[in-house]
Each structure stands twice: as C-alpha cells, then as structure tokens.
Design a protein that fits this description.
Number of strands: 15
Strand content: 15-25%
Shape: rod-shaped
Order of helices and strands: HEEHHEEHHHHEEHEEEEEHHEEEE
Length: about 325
C-alpha cells in the first residue's frame, strides 16, 4: 500500500506540474512570438498611443518589423498594448514615413536631430537618410550666411584677427577723420572702395574674414592679414599741396587691392605656414607691378616678417609755376 501511495503521489505531482507548465509556456510563447497572427497593433510609446497595422510596421527591415515577426521581445499589458520605452513625441512621424515613404521634416535643427535619433533607434534607414540629407542642406545654408559681429574696441579687433584661422581683409573707412577738404573725385573713390569691399565679401565669403573699421585713424586704408599677422597694406589717401590750401585725395587702386586679396589666400587653411607658401607669396609680390604714382615699402621690426605697404600718391605738391608746367611728386 505504501508503494502504491507513493506512486499515486508521484503521479499527482506530475499531473500538477503538467497543468501548471502550459500556462507558463503560453506566457513565454506570447512574449516571444510578438505579434504573429495579428493584423492590427496597439502601441504605447512613452504614454503616446498609436493604432496601426502589422503591414505598416513591416514595410522596412527595422526594429518594428522585428517586433512584429517575433525577433524582438516586447512587453504587452493586460489590454493588449505593446509597451515601448521611448519618447512618443516623434513616433507619429516615424509611422507616417512608413505609411507614405516620405514625410515633411521639422526645420528646427534640434527637432530634426531628435527625429534622427528616433529613426536610428527604430532602424528605419530611409528616414535616417532623409534626416541626414536635411541636416546637410541646413549646414550648407548656415555656411553661406554672412555673419557680421560688432567690434567695440581696438583690442577686441586685434584679438579677433590674431585668433582667426582664415585670412583677413580689413578696410579702414573714416571720412570724418580729415583736417582738410576733399578733392572733387575723393567722395566717388571712397564709395568705390566701399563697393569693392562689399563685392569681395560676396565673392570670398567663407574663405576670408572681412573687417570694416569706421572709427580708425585712416580715411581709407586696406590691410591684409594671414595667420594673425599683417601681410600687406594699401593706403588710398594722399595729401595734395595746392597753391592756397592743402586737400585730401582718395584714390581707388582696384587692381592692387584685388591682387593683395588673392595673395593672402595662400594662408587659407594654414597653407602659408610652410616655406613653400612663403616663397610663393614673395614671388607674387616681387613680380607684381605698381601703377603710376604708387610706391611700395617693405620693413621688418625685431626680426619679424616683412609687411608690404603700398601708398598711392602719398604726397603731391603742385609748384607755383604757370599753367602747363610739370607737376612734382614727392614721397
């Protein structure tokens, strides 16, 4: 009797185990099979509820398809909602991309980056590529924007030029800093220098930093910098000693200004640091010809590299001889 009781007890335990085991197996099977056999899916993404189809979620080889075919385990609550532990702010955009194949993306860079992060998490490669393309377009637009910082002191200007990695073109333009009256063509030439500055900004934007100084000591003077130091200078003002009074004359050496702008491009991206770049720049400057009435000075202080200073008719003296007599130019 004891043996039979023991066998009966063992059979009862086995039966009890067999009864409880299928329930546990059903839970695991429900968990591993994901949404197989379902047509519609209810998704709870961080509290944001979405109702869609398995067909929509399976359009791309993504994490969502893996959830649908059972490749990825999911948590399903008692009401049948699939729980995804993500922010649901942009999940609707991910769903619309799967439905339509394209979707309008936000213009704000921060929001676009958030959409990119969600697309990468769900492994929706089509949406990832669209986000990256939109970011590249935004980057191209930002690079073409002309930023104009306001400099309020000479020290701030010097610090900006010294730390700038790009070549620098500076125009000092202070018409009010004049003791004498201007000649008849000076105003026109002053405007031409300003217009040339604006044209150079448009042509070399992104490659050269342009600085306009309206409070400097010079009336019209161009300065060219590379690697934080002054490379060349073109002074466009001269003093005319007339018979009765002195006058200030402004010239417009367009070709020389444009040439010096091209010269400092050798310092773009640090290309002028080596001896080859310096030799090329020296050969350009030595081969360039000065126009009529132009003089070039080169000097170095304390062993520093030379600075080319080009002066356009610095001092002009008209003698008091009669009409038709020769004009004397003095430097």
């Amino acid at each position: 009797m004891s043996a039979e009781a023991s066998v009966g007890s063992h059979a009862a335990d086995s039966a009890q185990f067999d009864v409880s085991q299928p329930a546990c197996h059903t839970t695991d099977e429900h968990r591993n099979r994901g949404l197989l056999g379902s047509k519609y899916v209810k998704l709870n993404v961080g509290g944001s509820l979405h109702y869609t189809t398995v067909q929509t979620l399976s359009k791309e080889d993504s994490l969502l398809r893996s959830i649908c075919n059972g490749g990825t385990e999911v948590n399903i609550d008692s009401e049948g909602w699939v729980i995804l532990d993500r922010c649901g702010q942009h999940f609707g955009l991910v769903l619309n991309f799967l439905r339509d194949g394209s979707v309008p993306l936000p213009e704000d860079h921060k929001e676009l980056d958030e959409v990119l992060k969600e697309a990468q998490y769900y492994r929706v490669q089509g949406l990832v590529q669209e986000c990256l393309s939109a970011m590249q377009k935004q980057k191209d637009v930002f690079e073409s924007v002309c930023r104009i910082p306001m400099i309020t002191s000479a020290k701030e200007e010097q610090r900006m030029i010294a730390t700038c990695r790009k070549p620098v073109v500076k125009l000092q333009n202070n018409r009010g800093n004049n003791k004498y009256s201007y000649t008849s063509n000076s105003d026109d030439n002053l405007l031409k220098n300003i217009e040339l500055f604006d044209k150079l900004v448009l042509r070399f934007n992104g490659r050269v930093l342009f600085v306009k100084d309206v409070l400097g000591d010079e009336i019209c003077c161009w300065s060219f910098y590379g690697e934080g130091r002054k490379i060349a200078e073109v002074c466009c003002t001269s003093i005319v000693y007339a018979t009765e009074k002195k006058q200030t004359k402004v010239e417009f050496p367009e070709a020389r200004i444009f040439e010096e702008t091209l010269n400092i491009l050798i310092y773009e991206n640090g290309r002028g640091s080596g001896p080859g770049g310096l030799h090329l720049l020296d050969s350009r400057s030595s081969g360039s010809s000065l126009g009529a009435g132009q003089s070039e000075e080169e000097g170095a202080v304390g062993g520093e590299r030379r600075v080319r200073r080009i002066h356009v008719r610095r001092h002009i003296m008209h003698d008091e001889r009669g009409p038709g007599q020769q004009t004397v130019y003095k430097d």
